[in-house]
């Protein structure tokens, strides 16, 4: 067991992560999972959580934190009238279904496999954001019908496997079809709500009875980490919303791209370093 002083230091680090995740939830419409998952991975490793379940626990705990931060971000963005509620309503089944599929996959996939999924998706999105060109647009209107439902399931599944609230993928999806980045960010906060709530249930089920989980865990969710971060993130999220609405489209894209690139490189080091 680590010394008390070290545990206090990590508690402070988690609190700082709560500030960052709250800002990210507001600025990018994401639940902050892209920063929390790497932080949790390091902290749980120091606490001697076995590698076989460490990434799973990091993702599940991140999903749990996304619920309140996404709701907070969504209500703030909705007050500004920026949310595409029609798109959210069309995904009311597709996104939760994808989140459930993610938990089923998480129950059987390895830790390295989960990290590689995280890195691959984050790198692709980062490159698109950093080198975005108008000619990269897929279309001028969002798909409807079956294509729209498939997109919802895919976004829900991949986001659940990354421990994120869907903002990373939904921002890319909506902007690829000509939607403004600010509308995509606002709508992504609602996407996070639809993914994270069933995601909690799924990761509890997937990790039920798993060996090596630290105290305060239910399945692949550690409630001590959740309790430390959520209050801070809820206070900070509205600040991020204000920042998002004061930044230009290109500033949001570059900031988002650089952030994802750094996170991807950190995970590659954890796998091959």
- Tell me roughly what share of residues is in helical segments: over 70%
**Main β-sheet, in a few words?**
2 strands, antiparallel
Distance from first to last alpha carbon: 25 Å
Q: Using the alpha-carbon principal axes, give the shape.
A: globular
Which stretches of 5+ consecutive residues score pLDDT under 50?
A: none
Number of domains: 1
- Can you count the beta strands? 2
DSSP strand content: under 5%
Query: Largest beta sheet: what is the strand line-up?
Result: 1-2
- The total of helices stands at 11
Secondary-structure class: mainly alpha
Characterise this structure:
The protein is an all-alpha fold. The protein has one domain. 76% of the residues lie in helices and 1% in strands. It contains 11 helices and 2 strands. The chain has helices at residues 4-28, 33-46, 51-79, 85-90, 94-106, 111-130, 145-162, 167-176, 181-206, 223-244, 249-272; strands at residues 217-218, 221-222. It has a two-stranded antiparallel ribbon with strand order 1-2. Helix 1 (4-28) packs across helix 3, helix 1 packs parallel to helix 10 and helix 3 runs antiparallel to helix 9 (181-206). The model has no long low-confidence stretch (mean pLDDT 84).
